[in-house]
Amino acid sequence: METPKRRRSATRARLLEGALEVFAERGFHGASVEDICDRAGFTRGAFYSNFASKDELVLALFQATTDRLLEQIAALLPDLANQPGTLLDAVLGLLDEAAPDQRQWHLISTEFTLHALRHPEAAAALNLQRAMFRDQLTRLVEEITRASGLQMSVPPQQFVRLVIAVHEGARAQSLLEPDLVPAGSLEHTFLPLVLDAVSSRT
Amino acid sequence: METPKRRRSATRARLLEGALEVFAERGFHGASVEDICDRAGFTRGAFYSNFASKDELVLALFQATTDRLLEQIAALLPDLANQPGTLLDAVLGLLDEAAPDQRQWHLISTEFTLHALRHPEAAAALNLQRAMFRDQLTRLVEEITRASGLQMSVPPQQFVRLVIAVHEGARAQSLLEPDLVPAGSLEHTFLPLVLDAVSSRT
């Protein structure tokens, strides 16, 4: 039976999905709340009963994607917690699959970052969300190094920042030149080398 | 004495400088040719006698910045060609100084990359320019490894791609959280480790 709560959650999901497409086509600034509602087949009332603003919708998109990713990583842990190299490769694979469409995802996440660089309120909200995501990844890295009897020569938080930087920087290159830079290739080539260089047996 | 050629070059320089400011304020799409001319104190005629379009102006901005960077790197070579680690640190420092204002530079270069992801013609022009820049950096890496008697376990071109990916990805983090991620900190922490991991004495 469809409960009001379940209906509300389906509405949110369809709005998020429609927004991702509209943002990719028209850009974060070019896409209006009306465009998003038209695409998802809802009224503006439905939009505003779910999100206070376009900013809030984008942050909800980020949250949904990072939640999914963290769940997928957690599912790998029981088998791979003591094999950091294999786990890192698996996590890098998940990073490329966490968003249903890497191009759409890159467009909106990069555009919102630029928006944040011009609007302190958006920056505060984005930074808070990114910090929570990094903290959860950092805890995973700490758990894994403990389980594998490894010690890192850099703060795990810094290693997580590097993984994110390489992933975001490499994604731009992969999207610009997909034939020359297959998705994930720079990450898979270099990040295991870094992990190895900063890890030692305790 | 001011020659027509020198005057033309000064006009270009002022247009480029004005454009960088206007792009940072209004975005690549929000800034019109008129806005750029107003800022630089020229007519639209002056603009179009120097650039066919906004796209062409942005590519000229990129070219000027990468030319300056390559010149600065070349100036370091005589002293540091056989000290790859020191040279890498120096080059990373130059990357942060090549543009007069990192925030403005990040905004326009990222926005133009997004524009290219939506417009194949812009992508072709941008890719060509980025390829030339990478090729010149790759030749430098080859020269340095030769001079230092080193061999790399990855193609030098891949290492150059990684440096660019880390730099571009880390710059977004530095601009969002300048207190937590000082400019260049991720690059200086991790890239020398990578260089070391992929280099061996011949």
From TrEMBL, chains A, B:
Pfam families: TetR_C_6, TetR_N. Residues 32-51 bind DNA. Residues 9-69 form the HTH tetR-type domain. Signal peptide: none annotated. InterPro entries: BetI_C, Homeodomain-like_sf, HTH-type_TetR-like_transc_reg, HTH_TetR, Tet_transcr_reg_TetR-rel_C_sf. Keywords: DNA-binding, Repressor, Transcription, Transcription regulation. It comes from the Bacteria. This is TetR/AcrR family transcriptional regulator. It comes from Kribbella koreensis.
